[in-house]
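Hi again,

Forgot to attach this to my earlier email, sorry! This is the prediction with adenosine-2'-monophosphate bound. I've pasted everything inline since the attachment limit keeps bouncing my files.
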Amino acid sequence: MRLFIAIRLSDEIRSGLAEIQSFLRNRGVSGNFTKLENLHLTLAFIGEYDDPEDVLDAMRGVPFAPFSIRLDGFGSFGDLYWCGIGENNELSAYVKRLRRALAESGIPFDRKKFSPHITLIRKASFDRNRSFPGVTVPDASMEADRVSLMRSDRAKSGMVYTEIGRVLAN
Ligand code: 2AM
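Structure tokens for the complex follow:
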């Protein structure tokens, strides 16, 4: 199964993100817009791995206190558009410890540098003769008090992400 570790987002954050998506859609940006229920913040992408219990054990070995995350910044990686998460020492420290625990348990994961973002549109395109619309990121934050192990499946209707386990903050 295809696995990743993520923070699931509050309704408030997701509706803020949906506002950005509608704004862009209304100004002529097209592409694969992430469905509301699929919006999440990935902390580590594991990929194909058939022992989720192993991953949960590694996650349980990394205790954390609840911390706050806030939407901040908008940008792109090529044709993928994202909304960022504000500079956050607690989040980066947790991700560092989490990734170390995965490595120590021999669980593979994508080692690309962690750059906290929520993907809003994949394969985005817009009329290059027009300037890209200026996005205002809504002021929205949430308390992260759990981290989820997610399974990703490709369905006819698109990607389906299912939480298959979670660890709670202390
Ligand atoms: P993305 O939104 O930047 O594509 C499920 O695919 C989640 O894992 C997405 O949030 C995706 O990030 C993230 N991810 C990180 N590295 C990935 C990789 N190498 N392949 C696929 N998804 C990856």
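Strands lie at 2-8, 30-33, 40-48, 67-77, 80-85, 117-125, 141-144, 146-155, 158-168. The radius of gyration is 16 Å.

That should be everything now.

G.
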